[in-house]
Amino acid sequence: MSTPASLYDEAVKIYEGGNIEQAVEKLNEVLAMDESYTLAHSAIAVYYQKLGKFDDAIAHATKVTELEPDDHFSYLQLSVICQRCGRIQEAEDALAKAHSMGQGK
């Protein structure tokens, strides 16, 4: 039986092979098994951004900050995703949050 971790690893390999849509499908399988699998939300945010599905990308990046509210990197990723999706104010807000947390806290 597949585990969220093994499905996540498969999704990354699929992505590295160039099939972003199929990688997203595999990550959705991960999330169906474990909605709180942070790595899957993080990866799917990037993949959706690359596919031009900006609202979905931001939703998943935001979910990472909800699951890991004390993680400085979560807010940095949200900032980058928002910036790449053309949501500059949201990107600046997320970056400010990351800076206010400081590194390593």
Number of domains: 1
Overall SS class: mainly alpha
* Uncertain stretches: none
Q: CATH homologous superfamily, by name?
A: Tetratricopeptide repeat domain
Roughly how many Å is the radius of gyration?
Answer: 14 Å
Percent of residues in helices comes to: over 70%
Keywords: TPR repeat
Protein name: Tetratricopeptide repeat protein
Organism: Gimesia maris
InterPro entries: TPR-like_helical_dom_sf, TPR_rpt
Question: What are the defining features of this structure?
Answer:
single chain, about 100 residues, mainly alpha, Serine Threonine Protein Phosphatase 5, Tetratricopeptide repeat, about 75% helix, Tetratricopeptide repeat protein, TPR repeat, TPR-like_helical_dom_sf, TPR_rpt
Explain this structure to me?
The protein is mainly α. The protein has a single domain (4-101), classed as Alpha Horseshoe (Serine Threonine Protein Phosphatase 5, Tetratricopeptide repeat). The protein has helices spanning 4-16, 20-33, 38-50, 54-67, 72-84, 88-101. Helix 3 (38-50) packs antiparallel against helix 4 (54-67), helix 3 (38-50) packs parallel to helix 5 (72-84) and helix 5 (72-84) packs antiparallel against helix 6 (88-101). The model has no long low-confidence stretch (mean pLDDT 95).
Short note summarizing the structure:
The protein has 105 residues and is mainly α. It has six helices and no strands. It comes from Gimesia maris.
